[in-house]
Structures are given as C-alpha cells and as structure tokens.
Amino acid sequence: MSRLTPASLPPSCDELPSMSSTLGAGRAGWVAAVDLGATSGRVMLGQVGPDRLALDLVHRFPNNPVRTADGLCWNILELYRNVLLGLRIAFDREPSISSIAIDSWAVDYALLRGDRMISTPHHYRDEARVAGVDLVHGIVSPEELYAASGLQFLPFNTIYQLAVDQRDGVIDEHTSLLMIPDLIAFWLTGEQRVEQTNASTTGLLDVATGDWSRTLIDKLGLPESLFPPIVPPGSVIGGLRSSVAVEIGAPESVQVVAVGSHDTASAVVGVPLADHGAAYLSSGTWSLIGVELDEPVLSEASRAVNFTNEGGVDGRIRYLHNVMGLWLLSESVRTWERDGHEIDLTSLIADATAVTGTIPLFDTNHDSLLPPGDMPTRIAALCRATGQPVPSTPAVVVRSILESLAAAYADAITTAEELAGVSVDTVNIVGGGSQNPLLCQLTADYTGRIVEAGPVEATAIGNVLIQARAAGLLTGTLEELRRLVADTHPPLRYQPRSPGA
Fold this sequence. Notes:
The chain is an alpha+beta fold. Helix content is 35%, strand content 21%. The longest helix has 27 residues, at 394-420.
C-alpha cells in the first residue's frame, strides 16, 4: 500500500499538528536494525540522537516458507543470506554504525547441538505441530500453564512444538534452543543467548521471575541444557565474529545488542502512546491489541478469554489479545492472483470503502483461517454457517474482513478494560494496518474511540531506540523515547463516526 497523503484522507481523519524534527544540540549516531516479519524482512539504517530519529530502508527481501518432507519450514538460510547482504549495504553507506539488533516473529525456534543447527525451524502454521497440545496438556493443565507463564493458548506455542520434537527424539541433553532472532545473533557473534521478550512467548518463562520456569521444564521432562541464559533488552550479546565482520565490511568491535526481539515488543516501544489511557494495535500479518501494564493479569477470567501477558521492554507487561490480522487480506489476494486476477490493493480498498448495505461479519480467529490456502472460500463458509449473506465480490470480501477485524478489536479493548481495570480512550495503530485508511476508520467507528495511526515502521523504530539507548545516544524512560517518536513521526488521527454515517 502506498503511504497515505493528507489529500487522500477521509473527512473524519485529520493530521495531527507537525512537531519539530530538526537536528539540534546533542550527539547523533548510527545503528542497524534487522526486522524479520512473517512475509518479508528488511535491514534499516537508523540515525538517532536527542532530537533526531530517522530510518532508511537499505534492503528488503521476501520471507517465503518451504514445505518439505518434514513439514512447513522457514527458509532460515536464505533469510540469513539476506541479512548479511543488507548489513553489507548498510556498512557501505554508513561505516560508523555502532551496533546491530534483530527482531522477528515469536514462537518459532531452531535446535542446535553445540554450534551446529540440527533442525530447520518449523513454521508456526505447520499443521503437524499442533499434536503437541495433547502431549503437554496430558502432563500440565491449561490452568497451571497460565498461572506459571501468563501466556495465552495458541496451538503453535513453543511449548507445544517442543513436545513434538521431544516425542520424535530430536531433543537430548546436548541440544539447545534459540529463537529466530537469537539464532541470527548467534551466527553473527558466536554467543548463545535468548532475549527475554521473545522467551516470554514460549510458554516456558516464569511470568513472576522473568527466567525459565524450572517447574514446567522439569514436569515436561525437558533437559535444562536446552535453555540458554536469558538476557533483557538493552544487553550486549557480543562483538562480530571475524568472518562475519569481513563479509559485511564492518569492524569486529561492532556490537550485536538484544532489543525487544519479539517484533511486537519492539513495535510497542515505537508506539507514540500519549498516556496510560491508550491501547496499542500492532497491525500486520497478526493483529496484537492490548495495553501496557506494570503487573500481569493471571485471573481465570483472563485465561478463559485467552488474553496473554508477554514480556515488554523495561519489565513492562504487554497485556494483549491475538487477532488473525491482515493475513486474512494477504491470503485472499494470493488466492485471487493464483486464479489469474490482477489485484491492485489500493484500488481494491477504495472499492471496499464504497460498498454499502449489510456487511457479513465472521470470527477472525476461527481455526479454519489459520493455514495457507483459499481464504475467500473459507470466509464464505463461515458466513454461510451463521446465516449471513456470502461475500460475492473481492470488494465485499475485503470489506467483510476489515469490518470483522474492527469488531474483534472493539471486543478486545472492552475485555482488556474489564480485566486489567484500565480505561482506554485512544487506540494507536502501528505497522502495515496504519496505512489502510478504511481499517483505521472502521476501528475508530467500532471502538468508539479516537484512532491515531502510525508510524508504519514502529517495529524498526523500537529496535533502533533501544539500541540507541544502549549506546548512550539516548537516555530516559520508555515514555521519553515515545515522545521522540511522536515529535518525529506524528500520527494521523481518525475520529469515530456515528452509526450510519
């Protein structure tokens, strides 16, 4: 989608007043952010200082999973090749880069024996991995899991995937686990560490201590040697291997830093949250919507509605709910293109905006929508099963997707308010969805709250900010870092419309 311009905004959307983003007194420096998403990756240069926050995309590349005899897997070697290529371009452009950090999607991991990767990371959409749910729940109940980790139930959580590997004899006392960003960091530095925010998505992190849950690990019979030391965001993992330094044209003194390596943790750092009355919505392949808390919410009511307590930067809790997200739209587009249709997404969203009449709504988190494949047919089946009209054109399918997402966001915000005892008056949308004016307006309408949209690159911004603070280029709390985001990347504002408007 092209970047939204003021002239293209709907009548109820206005741009917030521009704030100063000029260079001022103070030292600015350069860092490199590796941001790996479920559909694409990018390497970005960040220039940061007390009144400076600028990003430059130097390399973007696709992330295409591969189906093998072992199942659906990530093409991790191709991703790493592109990371190195992007870093080489970055250092060619700016030799004074002081550090590198990696963020990615959560849950998935590689297994190593010593320094050698022994299994290609499986994709969380690999249907065979859900067999681990019964294996784990036969030993530890869902209630006990939630009390220990605070993590929502998702059938592809790391804990369930590990149970399948354990059943298949892949894991022994010589095996270690690294999440995707930690694997890339290991290949860059030779140091095996697991960053805390991503570890919190495994289901094996003790939500009270922020360390591995020895109780769960022992009950499941997993070797303790499987779990490397945990490091918090802002920690230095190590300098570059000499071979890597030569390959990317960088000094070995360049440090690899742990940031919020779960991409949502970095995205939340990059959300210009104005106050405690704001919710965040990180909108990409998945939609992650919630509030930032100081303490987890571990009630049975919270578990029953599948809210999660994931680790955030500076010890914060990301109390949120997963909604399927723009995967529904992108997979629909892929289906139409496979059928020979040419799809222009900007035009398609404009057509969806013009749709009138009753729009069918469906459960965006229905299990049938998780695997790859013909998304419009599955959406039609859900609408038919609930007695609603079946979307008849691509424009109606898109409108149905976006309205269903907005309705799910409204439900999640109401639930978060009730369970966490907070009041939400603003929704900050970041990521790809912030560039979709129809989704932003519908979110404002369904939630009845002001929506502030942007920045689109919040994840890379959060990555860069924590690196800059680790390097001493910035100081201050998350709130102070977010003020810099608001000053340099002012969001667009959408006002809720009255019903029928």
